[in-house]
Amino acid sequence: MHLYDIEVSAMDGKPVKLSAFRGKVLLIVNTATHCGFTPQYDELEKLYKAYKEKGLEVLDFPCNQFKEQAPGSIEEINQFCTLNFGTTFKRFAKLEVNGKGEHPLYTFLKSKKGFAGFNPLHEKSARLTERMRAADPEFEKDSSIKWNFTKFLIDRNGEVVERFEPTSFMPEIEEKVKALL
């Protein structure tokens, strides 16, 4: 299977083939509106605005699997993001990133890039590590999505280049994006 073979749902529920993004650099993100990382919407929008003319697409997939931090309908989520963060990048229907209801997109992404580790310099890393370790002492060994705002960087050929955990800093991500553009 290839990334471009995968189909996702638009906000209105209509199918969208990821092949529609062939030739673009993609940053695929699972998001939530009520999370400590929610301010990253602002950083994602700045990144998108800076590089969209050069071929960057940010694909936003809201997910309610982590402490139910993405409540509400996709319309409510879209309104929240547009009003509070001025987001203009593409947002899709809510989906699951782990478990029985996991969307094939995330099965594919996780098969290509496993857990990258939390950045020890980020203020939220210690708490996340503590929470993850309490649930599973060997959490670092599996490729599951650990939290909201995990990002996957895809090159223009649809290859998964890198995975960034939510504690990654945007300047690092921006440098990787620029290198692919």
Keywords:
Glutaredoxin; five-stranded mixed β-sheet
What's the alpha carbon Rg, rounded to whole Å?
A: 15 Å
Structural category: alpha/beta
Shape: globular
Which architecture of the domain at 3-29 and 40-117 and 145-153 per CATH? 3-Layer(aba) Sandwich
| CATH fourth-tier homologous superfamily of the domain at 3-29 and 40-117 and 145-153 | Glutaredoxin
Give the strand content.
Answer: 15-25%
What percent of residues adopt helix (DSSP H or I)? 25-40%
The biggest sheet amounts to:
5 strands, mixed
Number of strands: 7
The CATH class name of the domain at 3-29 and 40-117 and 145-153 reads Alpha Beta
Count helical runs. Answer: 5
CATH topology of the domain at 3-29 and 40-117 and 145-153: Glutaredoxin
Overall pLDDT = 96
Which strand order spans the largest sheet, edge to edge or round the barrel? 5-4-3-6-7
Q: Uncertain runs with pLDDT below 50, 5 residues or more?
A: none
Order of helices and strands: EEEHEHEHHEEH
Distance between the termini: 24 Å
